[in-house]
Amino acid sequence: MTDEQGILFILSGPSGVGKGTVRKELFNQITDLKYSISMTTRDRRTGEINGVDYFYKTKQEFEHLIEQNQLLEYAQYVNNYYGTPRAYVEETLAAGHDVFLEIEVQGALQVKENFPEGVFIFLFPPSLEELKNRIVDRGTESTDLVLNRLNEAKNEIKQMNAYDYVVVNDQVDVAVTKIQSIIQSEHLKRERIEQQYKKFLEDEIS
Question: For 77, which DSSP code?
Fold first, then answer.
Protein backbone atom coordinates (compact mmCIF):
# COMPACT_ATOMS: atom_id res chain seq x y z
CA MET A 1 0.00 0.00 0.00
CA THR A 2 1.22 3.44 -0.93
CA ASP A 3 1.03 6.60 1.16
CA GLU A 4 -0.59 8.37 -1.75
CA GLN A 5 -4.33 8.02 -2.28
CA GLY A 6 -5.35 7.13 -5.83
CA ILE A 7 -7.29 9.61 -7.96
CA LEU A 8 -10.68 9.05 -9.60
CA PHE A 9 -10.65 10.21 -13.24
CA ILE A 10 -13.97 10.60 -15.02
CA LEU A 11 -14.04 10.76 -18.82
CA SER A 12 -17.33 12.02 -20.21
CA GLY A 13 -18.86 13.78 -23.18
CA PRO A 14 -21.76 13.64 -25.62
CA SER A 15 -22.88 10.46 -27.37
CA GLY A 16 -20.80 9.76 -30.47
CA VAL A 17 -17.75 11.75 -29.34
CA GLY A 18 -15.63 8.57 -29.07
CA LYS A 19 -15.35 8.01 -25.30
CA GLY A 20 -15.08 4.24 -25.63
CA THR A 21 -12.46 4.41 -28.38
CA VAL A 22 -10.30 6.84 -26.40
CA ARG A 23 -10.63 4.80 -23.20
CA LYS A 24 -9.61 1.56 -24.98
CA GLU A 25 -6.54 3.21 -26.51
CA LEU A 26 -5.62 4.72 -23.14
CA PHE A 27 -5.75 1.30 -21.50
CA ASN A 28 -3.66 -0.18 -24.30
CA GLN A 29 -0.87 2.19 -23.23
CA ILE A 30 -1.27 2.49 -19.45
CA THR A 31 -1.44 -0.55 -17.20
CA ASP A 32 -1.57 0.96 -13.72
CA LEU A 33 -5.00 2.59 -14.14
CA LYS A 34 -7.92 0.57 -12.77
CA TYR A 35 -11.11 0.62 -14.79
CA SER A 36 -14.25 1.20 -12.72
CA ILE A 37 -16.38 -1.94 -12.96
CA SER A 38 -20.08 -1.18 -13.27
CA MET A 39 -22.89 -2.90 -11.39
CA THR A 40 -25.98 -4.22 -13.18
CA THR A 41 -29.20 -6.15 -12.63
CA ARG A 42 -29.20 -7.65 -16.13
CA ASP A 43 -28.55 -11.36 -16.57
CA ARG A 44 -24.97 -12.51 -16.93
CA ARG A 45 -24.13 -13.40 -20.52
CA THR A 46 -22.13 -16.46 -21.56
CA GLY A 47 -18.46 -15.99 -20.71
CA GLU A 48 -18.98 -12.98 -18.46
CA ILE A 49 -17.40 -13.05 -15.00
CA ASN A 50 -18.75 -11.41 -11.85
CA GLY A 51 -16.31 -8.74 -10.64
CA VAL A 52 -14.57 -8.58 -14.04
CA ASP A 53 -17.22 -7.65 -16.60
CA TYR A 54 -19.79 -6.36 -14.09
CA PHE A 55 -20.85 -6.77 -10.51
CA TYR A 56 -24.18 -8.63 -10.90
CA LYS A 57 -26.98 -7.87 -8.43
CA THR A 58 -30.69 -8.57 -8.11
CA LYS A 59 -33.08 -5.65 -8.54
CA GLN A 60 -33.80 -5.77 -4.79
CA GLU A 61 -30.08 -5.69 -3.92
CA PHE A 62 -29.49 -2.79 -6.32
CA GLU A 63 -32.39 -0.74 -4.95
CA HIS A 64 -31.12 -1.35 -1.41
CA LEU A 65 -27.72 0.08 -2.49
CA ILE A 66 -29.48 3.14 -3.94
CA GLU A 67 -31.25 3.69 -0.61
CA GLN A 68 -27.94 3.33 1.25
CA ASN A 69 -26.21 5.86 -1.06
CA GLN A 70 -23.71 3.17 -2.09
CA LEU A 71 -23.65 4.17 -5.78
CA LEU A 72 -21.74 7.10 -7.21
CA GLU A 73 -24.24 7.18 -10.08
CA TYR A 74 -26.92 4.96 -11.58
CA ALA A 75 -29.45 4.84 -14.39
CA GLN A 76 -32.13 2.49 -15.65
CA TYR A 77 -32.14 1.12 -19.20
CA VAL A 78 -34.72 -1.35 -20.55
CA ASN A 79 -35.87 -2.46 -17.07
CA ASN A 80 -32.33 -3.03 -15.83
CA TYR A 81 -30.25 -0.88 -13.50
CA TYR A 82 -26.63 0.08 -14.21
CA GLY A 83 -24.42 2.00 -11.81
CA THR A 84 -21.00 2.68 -10.31
CA PRO A 85 -20.46 1.11 -6.86
CA ARG A 86 -18.97 3.48 -4.31
CA ALA A 87 -17.25 0.76 -2.24
CA TYR A 88 -15.17 -0.63 -5.15
CA VAL A 89 -14.02 2.85 -6.16
CA GLU A 90 -13.15 3.97 -2.62
CA GLU A 91 -11.31 0.72 -1.75
CA THR A 92 -9.29 0.83 -4.98
CA LEU A 93 -8.37 4.49 -4.40
CA ALA A 94 -7.42 3.76 -0.77
CA ALA A 95 -5.04 1.05 -2.04
CA GLY A 96 -3.22 3.78 -3.98
CA HIS A 97 -4.57 2.97 -7.44
CA ASP A 98 -6.04 5.50 -9.85
CA VAL A 99 -9.55 4.61 -11.00
CA PHE A 100 -10.84 5.51 -14.45
CA LEU A 101 -14.54 5.89 -15.24
CA GLU A 102 -15.95 6.40 -18.74
CA ILE A 103 -19.53 7.57 -18.55
CA GLU A 104 -22.35 9.62 -20.07
CA VAL A 105 -22.73 13.28 -19.05
CA GLN A 106 -25.74 12.79 -16.77
CA GLY A 107 -23.93 10.02 -14.91
CA ALA A 108 -20.81 12.20 -14.59
CA LEU A 109 -22.88 14.98 -13.03
CA GLN A 110 -24.21 12.47 -10.47
CA VAL A 111 -20.63 11.41 -9.68
CA LYS A 112 -19.71 15.09 -9.25
CA GLU A 113 -22.39 15.42 -6.55
CA ASN A 114 -21.33 12.23 -4.76
CA PHE A 115 -17.55 12.42 -5.30
CA PRO A 116 -16.56 16.05 -6.00
CA GLU A 117 -12.86 15.33 -5.42
CA GLY A 118 -12.76 13.37 -8.69
CA VAL A 119 -11.04 14.81 -11.78
CA PHE A 120 -13.59 15.42 -14.52
CA ILE A 121 -12.49 15.38 -18.18
CA PHE A 122 -14.88 16.44 -20.95
CA LEU A 123 -14.23 14.89 -24.35
CA PHE A 124 -15.21 17.48 -26.94
CA PRO A 125 -16.00 16.86 -30.64
CA PRO A 126 -13.98 18.80 -33.25
CA SER A 127 -17.30 20.18 -34.56
CA LEU A 128 -21.02 19.39 -34.49
CA GLU A 129 -20.71 18.38 -38.15
CA GLU A 130 -18.03 15.83 -37.24
CA LEU A 131 -20.17 14.57 -34.34
CA LYS A 132 -23.10 14.14 -36.73
CA ASN A 133 -20.87 12.20 -39.16
CA ARG A 134 -19.70 9.88 -36.36
CA ILE A 135 -23.27 9.15 -35.26
CA VAL A 136 -24.42 8.62 -38.88
CA ASP A 137 -21.42 6.35 -39.59
CA ARG A 138 -22.60 3.99 -36.86
CA GLY A 139 -25.51 3.14 -39.15
CA THR A 140 -27.73 2.26 -36.21
CA GLU A 141 -29.94 5.36 -35.94
CA SER A 142 -32.68 6.88 -38.08
CA THR A 143 -32.48 10.50 -39.24
CA ASP A 144 -34.83 11.56 -36.43
CA LEU A 145 -32.70 9.78 -33.83
CA VAL A 146 -29.53 11.40 -35.20
CA LEU A 147 -31.13 14.85 -34.85
CA ASN A 148 -32.31 14.00 -31.33
CA ARG A 149 -28.79 12.91 -30.38
CA LEU A 150 -27.29 16.10 -31.81
CA ASN A 151 -29.75 18.26 -29.87
CA GLU A 152 -28.95 16.28 -26.73
CA ALA A 153 -25.22 16.72 -27.46
CA LYS A 154 -25.71 20.50 -27.57
CA ASN A 155 -27.40 20.36 -24.16
CA GLU A 156 -24.60 18.17 -22.78
CA ILE A 157 -21.91 20.54 -24.10
CA LYS A 158 -23.60 23.29 -22.07
CA GLN A 159 -22.69 21.26 -18.94
CA MET A 160 -18.97 21.65 -19.70
CA ASN A 161 -18.49 24.13 -16.86
CA ALA A 162 -18.89 21.25 -14.40
CA TYR A 163 -15.62 19.71 -15.66
CA ASP A 164 -11.98 20.35 -14.79
CA TYR A 165 -10.47 19.72 -18.23
CA VAL A 166 -11.61 19.72 -21.85
CA VAL A 167 -9.93 17.51 -24.47
CA VAL A 168 -10.87 17.78 -28.16
CA ASN A 169 -11.11 14.33 -29.74
CA ASP A 170 -9.84 15.21 -33.20
CA GLN A 171 -7.26 12.41 -33.30
CA VAL A 172 -7.54 9.55 -30.83
CA ASP A 173 -3.79 9.24 -30.15
CA VAL A 174 -3.49 13.00 -29.49
CA ALA A 175 -6.50 12.93 -27.14
CA VAL A 176 -4.96 9.98 -25.26
CA THR A 177 -1.64 11.83 -24.88
CA LYS A 178 -3.47 14.83 -23.42
CA ILE A 179 -5.35 12.64 -20.94
CA GLN A 180 -2.07 11.01 -19.89
CA SER A 181 -0.67 14.51 -19.27
CA ILE A 182 -3.69 15.38 -17.12
CA ILE A 183 -3.16 12.22 -15.04
CA GLN A 184 0.54 13.06 -14.52
CA SER A 185 -0.10 16.69 -13.62
CA GLU A 186 -2.82 15.81 -11.11
CA HIS A 187 -0.32 13.64 -9.22
CA LEU A 188 2.09 16.58 -9.03
CA LYS A 189 -0.39 18.98 -7.41
CA ARG A 190 0.91 20.31 -4.12
CA GLU A 191 -2.24 19.48 -2.15
CA ARG A 192 -2.01 15.83 -3.20
CA ILE A 193 1.52 15.37 -1.83
CA GLU A 194 1.16 17.69 1.15
CA GLN A 195 0.95 14.87 3.69
CA GLN A 196 4.06 13.23 2.24
CA TYR A 197 6.23 16.33 2.45
CA LYS A 198 4.94 17.12 5.96
CA LYS A 199 6.09 13.66 7.03
CA PHE A 200 9.40 14.30 5.27
CA LEU A 201 9.92 17.47 7.31
CA GLU A 202 8.95 15.72 10.56
CA ASP A 203 11.47 12.91 10.12
CA GLU A 204 14.47 13.35 12.40
CA ILE A 205 17.87 13.81 10.82
CA SER A 206 20.30 11.26 12.17
Answer: E
Residue 17 annotated in ligand binding: yes
- Binding site annotation covers 168? no
The CA-atom distances, in angstroms, between 150 and each of 9, 66, 170 are 26, 31, 18
pTM of the model: 0.85
38 annotated among ligand-binding-site residues: no
Total residue count of the chain as it appears in this document: 206
Q: Report whether 127 belongs to an annotated binding site.
A: no
**What are the pLDDT digits (tens) for 34-53?**
999 999 999 998 899 999 88
Domains and their CATH numbers in the chain? 8-36+97-202 (3.40.50.300)
Q: Is 13 annotated as a binding residue?
A: yes
